[in-house]
What does this fold into?
Amino acid sequence: MTQHLDGVLVVHACFTLSRAEVDDRLAEFGLTPPFWQEVGQVSTATVELSIEYSKAMALLDSLAKVSQLRFEMTLLPNRDFTGERWVWSPVLGLGSVQIDASGNHLIGESQLTALVRDCSDNVLKLERRLRKLMLSDWDDEFEELREQKMSQRMRLPRVG
It folds into this structure.
């Protein structure tokens, strides 16, 4: 029996014309199309996941083919699985990192050793490589989108 992993898919930016395509791709994996929230010229959405690892990888591949889509997918750790976080941006491509139960990025000893060895005494190169390893460039891009979403919420009229 294959284990289902819990997680979340956050679509940070999807152009309106691509929403139906994203909905169709999610439906192919037995996932309910999300409630889309319009933020400026793009839409955002969050989808709760309970999915097998192999299907999660196929979903990642499928969503990465949608034009101009920006998203992240996180599968939460459990006793048999180290959690993982994947991020996708058309400009930056795909990035991934293992995570712990608190969402902290886990960088292995061998990765750090190779990184330090490769960068020697070049501190700027070390900083650049660490930022990539920690998915900082993706987070910087997504942060702008998160801020737009928060600004949109603040402008909504109060009812009642």
The first strand starts at residue 4 and ends at 15. Strands lie at 4-15, 37-39, 42-52, 70-75, 83-89, 93-99, 105-106.
